[in-house]
Amino acid sequence: LRKRQEGKITVPEGVRRAEQVAEQSAKIALAKATEPPAWLQRLLDQPSVAEVLISAGVFTGLGTFAVLNPTPDSLAFLLALGVGFSMYWLNRKEQRLGRAFLITLSVLGIGFVLTSLLFQSVSAVAGLNQVTVTTLAILALFWLASSFLR
Fold this sequence. Notes:
Layout: H1 2-6, H2 13-16, H3 18-34, H4 38-43, H5 49-68, H6 72-94, H7 97-118, H8 120-126, H9 130-148
Helix pairs in contact: 5-6, 5-9, 6-7, 6-9, 7-9
């Protein structure tokens, strides 16, 4: 102990200031715990305002056609166009067609499930049939996915 106090023995920094090292490691662990996981960071995108507005305009146009012409054939065609536009914008970001296809297919399935569970009463109130409400909700989800996912 005397040799160490006199400075004749070198002591590692981690041993000399153990309290500070413990505090720093606790801060680093807290910072890592508050940030989202890496897979989620790779999935999310921060697009420019122009990209968001262009895709919003396209999907709003598709939604407008869905409300104006609510025949089953036209709604199916508009959903097919929505799938195509969504895949195009997702593929354009990272040039990964398979990933864009899976994300688009997942959003399509989630949209069908959500609208079948949540929007049954909304269609009667808004004066729209269930298929039109489903189409509008799926187009909105396509816009969200194509704008804010990679």
